[in-house]
Amino acid sequence: MEPLTSLDLVVAEKQAIATDIVRLVLRHPEGQMLPGAEPGAHIALDLDGCVRRYSLLHTGPALDHYSVAVLRTAQSQGGSHFVHDQLAVGDQLRVLELANEFALQPDAPHALLIGGGIGITPLLSMVEHLQQQEQSFALHQIVHDATRQWPLAPGLPAQTHIGRSSLDLPGLLAAQVPGSQVYVCGPAGLVGAVRAAAEQLGWAKERIHSESFGAAANASDSPLRVTLVQSGLSIDVEPGQSLLDALLAAGAWTGYECRRGVCGACLTEVVSGTPIHRDSIAPALRGNAMCTCVSWAEGPDLALNL
User: Lowest-pLDDT range, 69-73, 129-133, 226-230?
Assistant: First the structure.
């Protein structure tokens, strides 16, 4: 993938795709080609002072546009609300980063793609690539209700499931051909369920590739006492619950959007303690902060500037 410095692009299209989801098409103002990207890649956008990261819907060695999908979130600190309510066709946006932390593995006999909600977006570029290469794959989309499903092209080897309980994950994985690779993106609970089903079947961990919305607990995680320095509040958080969810449940005001450690909306300054970073943000951009949606800390104490 080509290195990218900051790049100013123009919003060529803005289209509602599903409930609370819009698709943006970004082009060079002079019609120039853009740096290529591989399936699973994302870009970082400067949205009126907020830096947010979104998966590219289309990828390739040479691109005449970048397209992303943006989900409106209730507690946005400006990113998704800015896109939905203020951004218009003809406006300029600055791309700050092009990166890929969720790449396809080459030469697998079959790819099983599982997307929960907006987590389908990085899988769409994978579908496009696998079709072009005439490689075997199947796509499963899971949504809370039918109004939130991504419109898929007719003829794709794809299924849409309304509610996670409608998909038999152990049965689905058991039916895969030997050597299949699984790519799952969505809430931490979905990623955890896929990994648990694979473990029960004796699959190697390396066959499961994921981006999650939230913190999937690690066996070595220990309970945390989180102190909010500005408010004086202390919160006990158990492994398996994201720091973000614990903060919100306690009434703390903190922004969030992607819930998978990509956009940076929940970055929070660490006053004391040692974070365990599980996000996809470059250390130089993260600074002395942590993504509360996916990251954890070495126990027992963590202090945040909230």
Answer: 69-73
257 and 281 fall within a common domain: yes
Task: Give the predicted TM-score (pTM) of the model.
Answer: 0.76
Phi-psi region of 157 (alpha: psi -120 to 50; beta: other; left: phi over 0): beta
Structure tokens at 116: 């929960």
Domain span including residue 285: 224-304
Structure tokens given for 32: 């120039």
pLDDT band at 230 (very low <50, low <70, confident <90, very high): very high
Residue that is last in its domain, among 213, 247, 280: 213
Q: Is pLDDT of 270 > 90?
A: yes
Cα–Cα distance, 247 to 228 (Å, whole number): 9
Say if 188 falls within a structural domain: yes
- pLDDT of 191: 83
Task: For residue 269, give the 3-state DSSP assignment.
Answer: strand
Candidates 125, 106, 112; CA nearest to 39 is 125
DSSP string, 8-36: EEEEEEEEEEETTEEEEEEE-TT---EEE
Q: Output the domain CATH number for residue 54.
A: 2.40.30.10
Q: With 90 as the cut, is the pLDDT of residue 40 above it?
A: yes
How far, in Å, CA of 211 to CA of 217, rounded?
14
Beta pairing partners, 70: 22
Closest CA to 150 of 73, 68, 219, 259: 68
Query: Contact 129/39 with Cβ under 8 angstroms?
Result: yes
CATH code for the domain of 141: 3.40.50.80
Q: Would you say residue 247 lies in a domain? A: yes
Q: What is the mean pLDDT of the chain?
A: 90
